[in-house]
Design brief:
Blueprint (H helix, E strand, L loop, with lengths): L3 H6 L10 E3 L9 E5 L1 H6 L2 H37 L6 H54 L2 E6 L11 E2 L1 H11 L40
Parallel strand pairs: 2-3, 2-4
Antiparallel strand pairs: 1-3
Length: 215
C-alpha cells in the first residue's frame, strides 16, 4: 500500500515510452545500434526522482484521508459480522446504510484521486520525456549510431545493441540540473488499496497508462 505512489512514477508504473532515434547514416555497414530503457532513464534522473517526492508530498493528505475512510469501512464491516447476533434489526439496518454511504464516498474519492494523480503523472512524463528524447537524438547523431531504440523487453532472436541508458541519465542530469533534490525518506505514503478487505463492493483501481510523449 505504502509503495503505490512510488511505483507509480518510478515513473514509472507510469510509463511505457518507446523511442526510436536514427543517426545520419542508418544504412551504413557496421553502424552502431543502441538500446535504452527509456522508462528507467527518466525515473532515475535527478529531476525524475524529485518529481516523485513532490507528487507524494502533494497527495499525502488525500492519501491519508482515503486510508482513514477505508479503515472506517473495515470497522463497520467487522462490527456487522461480529455483532450480528446481538444487534437489533433496526441497528443492523442503520449500520448497513452507514456502511453503504461510506463505501460510495470512498469510491468517489478514490476515482477522483486516481484521475488527478494520473493527469499529473502524464504531465511529468511528457515534460521529462520530451527533453530526454532530444538528448537521445543528439547523442545518437554525435556518436555514429544508426539506431537507438527502446529495448526492454527485447524480442529479437539475436540482438546485441549498446545500452546507452546510464549515459543518457548522466547527460540529462547535466543538461537539466535540479537545484535541490530532497532525499527519499522511505516513509512516503501511497493511495489505499482499491478493494476493501471485507466483502463490500470493490471499486476498480485500474489506472490508464500514461500517454506516450511525442518526439
Amino acid at each position: 500500500m505504502r509503495n503505490r505512489v512510488s511505483s507509480l512514477i518510478v515513473l514509472v508504473g507510469l510509463l511505457t515510452l518507446p523511442i526510436v532515434a536514427w543517426g545520419q547514416t542508418p544504412a551504413a555497414a557496421g553502424a552502431k545500434i543502441g538500446v535504452i530503457n527509456f522508462q528507467g532513464a527518466i525515473g532515475n534522473t535527478a529531476e525524475g526522482k524529485k518529481s516523485v517526492l513532490e507528487l507524494q508530498k502533494k497527495y499525502e493528505p488525500r492519501t491519508r484521508d482515503l486510508q482513514q475512510q477505508q479503515q472506517e469501512i473495515q470497522n463497520l464491516q467487522d462490527q456487522l459480522q461480529k455483532q450480528a447476533a446481538t444487534l437489533s434489526d433496526d441497528e443492523q439496518r442503520r449500520l448497513a446504510r452507514e456502511l453503504e454511504d461510506k463505501q460510495k464516498r470512498f469510491k468517489r474519492g478514490q476515482e477522483d484521486y486516481q484521475a488527478d494523480i494520473q493527469a499529473e503523472q502524464q504531465e511529468i512524463v511528457q515534460r521529462l520525456g520530451q527533453k530526454m528524447f532530444r538528448l537521445v537524438t543528439d547523442y545518437g547523431q554525435q556518436n555514429g549510431f544508426a539506431l537507438i531504440m527502446e529495448g526492454y523487453p527485447q524480442v529479437l532472436v539475436y540482438f546485441a545493441p549498446i545500452d546507452v541508458t546510464e549515459e543518457m541519465i548522466k547527460r540529462y542530469d547535466a543538461a537539466y540540473p535540479v537545484a535541490s533534490a530532497a532525499p527519499a525518506t522511505g516513509t512516503s505514503s501511497a493511495p489505499p488499496a482499491a478493494k476493501p478487505a471485507a466483502p463490500a463492493p470493490k471499486p476498480s483501481t485500474a489506472a490508464k497508462p500514461a500517454d506516450k510523449p511525442k518526439p
